[in-house]
Amino acid sequence: MKDGKPNFEAIAAALARSHADVPGEDEAYDLDFGEDFDLKDEEGKPVKLDPEDPLVKDFETIAREHNIGKTAAKALMGLYGKVIKSAVQVDESVEKARQEAEYKKLGETPEKGKERALAAAKGLDASIGPKVRPLIAALTSAPLIEAAEAILEAVNGEGSTDPKDDPTTENKSAEEILYGKN
User: What pLDDT was estimated at residue 1?
Assistant: First the structure.
């Protein structure tokens, strides 16, 4: 308000600023998760937005419908990237805690349980061969590891071999250790 009346100049300036960087019909938004987004895919490459992804197209449509400028859209995608990264980190820590609890069921400590799981995986691979690898990849719970040990005992007449301490296997699954998957 200016002198008790609407300040049309200030309103027009605010509207102009809000629409200044809204892309035209044939222009695209420059969308990414922001510079500090460092989440990696299975191949170790940074996760990027695919401009042809239907969700990205939906975001652009909504941004255009609501006259959201490029700067604001980029800031929103950066915030969304932080949300995704946070959710993935929570999932990873929950999964690690779950796996450690399963390993602990097999031994006095998670490390001892992991040793049993690794020994069962190595024993299955040595006794049965490559066709058993999908089963080895599934050895993530105490009952499955105990079942693998029982299979080895039935096949070989003995349980899985005693594992050796190996610091290179820390935080890796049996499948990663045996087959080098990361």
Answer: 66
Measuring CA to CA, which residue among 26, 111, 113, 8 is closest to residue 64? 26
Q: Rounded to a whole number, what is the distance in angstroms from the first to the last CA of the chain?
A: 62
Q: Is the pLDDT of residue 75 over 70?
A: yes
Residues 48 and 65 in one domain: yes
Length of the chain: 182
Q: What is the pLDDT of residue 70?
A: 84
Q: Is residue 167 classed as helix, strand or coil in its secondary structure? A: helix
CB contact burial 147-174 (16+ within 10 A = b; e otherwise): ebbebbeeeeeeebeebeeeeebeebbb
Helix, coil or strand: residue 2: strand
Per the listing, tokens 């040990």 go with 149
Residues 28 and 96 in one domain: yes
Residue 121 lies in a domain: yes
Q: Which helix (H) or strand (E) holds 149?
A: helix 142-156
Alpha-helical (H) ranges within 20-141 are 54-65, 70-106, 110-128, 133-137
Per residue in 33-66, pLDDT (tens digit) is 777 777 777 777 777 778 888 988 898 888 888 8
- The reply to whether 11 falls in a domain is no
